[in-house]
């Protein structure tokens, strides 16, 4: 199966690894339970024009995702909040929480009409209503992950769009500079389109934290935007 690995921007989230279900003997990704921590904080972000990406709940009413997911590819215009939907606990057409978006903040200087990657390719979605306190948002790291740091990447991959799928045996490869001077890190987590905006998670104490967000696919390595670059 041909898959494009995705570069991750923000990665770190508190999670307890539950018993996962392998997709196949040749596929390193695992199907995980979207209603069990930390996977329950992974959101499917959908637009009214058919776009689909992944995000992470980082506060009761805030989701972090990739900015490029929120632009109309034909016009280059930023979509209005009313066009965006956040689904938590999504699996096979059902979900636990659905939230509308009332505000969008994209990284300063990001231009949806320019080529990717860009150092400001992150977006904050303010939800119309907070998610109940029974669900814990993921903490966001303020430090860059060191090469070799163990990672997990969970998202709604294009080839498995009805399931939350995670690559749990991957690592930071190294730091990368973009043409516009931005700092990213490369990683070897498996993923496809649809995982743009997905959190890259790294261990922190007894839990996990978001250290970056997935933004682009590459040949042999993928790019992630540093969590510290998103302004928290």
Task: Determine the N-to-C terminus distance.
Answer: 36 Å
Side-by-side strand order of the widest sheet: 10-11-12-15-14-13
Number of domains: 2
Low-confidence stretches: 1-22
| Strand and helix order | EEEEEEEEEEEEEEE
Task: Please name the CATH architecture of the largest domain.
Answer: Beta Barrel
- Going by helix content, strand content and strand pairing, the class is mainly beta
The helicity comes to: under 10%
Number of helices: 0
Corresponding CATH superfamily of the largest domain: Trypsin-like serine proteases
**Main sheet, how many strands, which sense, barrel?**
6 strands, antiparallel, barrel
Average residue pLDDT = 84
Total count of strands: 15
Instruction: Please report which band the strand proportion falls in: under 5%, 5-15%, 15-25%, 25-35%, 35-45% or over 45%.
Output: 35-45%
At the third CATH level, what is the topology name of the largest domain? Thrombin, subunit H
Q: How does the overall form come out from the CA principal axes?
A: globular
Radius of gyration: 16 Å
Report the CATH C-level class of the largest domain: Mainly Beta
